[in-house]
């Protein structure tokens, strides 16, 4: 009987020790996961801040096209191309750098075309570049809420998209011709 009680007591002691080790390991794992999530969130915020000049210049092009202002769109396109060229890709994860470099090069090319073109050609390049800027924000984050907007009538009803800081539709692809054509497709949050 004593042996049985001793065996049961010993078994309970071992089990309780193992449970506390398991709980400690679970707590450590939870802490590590939380720390990794916080680091990722901090990294995304830093990435979002890194592209602030790009987003600012992109939005300046958009606003100029909304207002049918070819000259302002050209200036903002040049500013955008410069901001894209200035982005330090090396600050981002190595596994993302090649894709980022490709996006930046294509978007920079569009910015350069916008800086040298007539307004209809500016709009074509702006629409194509909008997907690049959206892809850029998907990889590195953004410093503000953006609205992915879409007009189904652009480009002979093939449709076109752009990003905005407002839910209100102000169409840069048509300007005054069809200012309200479009709808919000997606909200891109911080």
What does this molecule look like?
With 190 residues, the protein is mostly helical. It has one domain (48-188). Helix content is 68%, strand content 9%. The protein has 6 helices and 3 strands; from the N terminus they run αααααβαββ. It has helices spanning 2-50, 52-66, 70-86, 94-115, 119-140, 154-157; strands spanning 146-151, 160-164, 183-188. A 3-stranded antiparallel beta sheet has the order 2-1-3, with helices on one face. α2 runs antiparallel to α5, α3 (70-86) runs antiparallel to α4 (94-115) and α4 packs antiparallel against α5. The longest helix is centred in the first third of the chain and has 49 residues, at 2-50. The N and C termini lie far apart (66 Å). The relative contact order is 0.12.
Distance between the first and last residues' Cα: 66 Å
Task: Write down the overall mean pLDDT.
Answer: 85
In the predicted model, the low-confidence regions spanning at least 5 consecutive residues are 19-23, 29-45
Main pleated-sheet profile = 3 strands, antiparallel
Domain tally: 1
């Amino acid at each position: 009987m004593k042996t049985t009680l001793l065996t049961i007591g010993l078994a309970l002691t071992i089990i309780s020790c193992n449970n506390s080790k398991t709980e400690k390991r679970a707590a450590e794992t939870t802490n590590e996961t939380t720390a990794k999530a916080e680091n990722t969130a901090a990294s995304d915020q830093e990435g979002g801040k890194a592209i602030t000049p790009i987003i600012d210049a992109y939005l300046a092009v958009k606003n100029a096209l909304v207002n049918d202002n070819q000259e302002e769109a050209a200036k903002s396109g040049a500013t955008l191309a410069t901001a894209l060229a200035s982005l330090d890709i090396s600050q981002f994860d190595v596994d993302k750098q090649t894709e980022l470099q490709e996006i930046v090069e294509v978007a920079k090319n569009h910015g350069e075309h916008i800086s040298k073109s007539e307004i209809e050609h500016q709009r074509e390049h702006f629409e194509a570049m909008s997907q690049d800027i959206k892809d850029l924000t998907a990889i590195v984050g953004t410093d503000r809420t953006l609205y992915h907007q879409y007009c189904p009538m652009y480009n002979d009803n093939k449709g076109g998209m752009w990003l905005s800081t407002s839910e209100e539709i102000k169409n840069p692809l048509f300007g005054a011709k069809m200012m309200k054509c479009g709808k919000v497709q997606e909200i891109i949050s911080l």
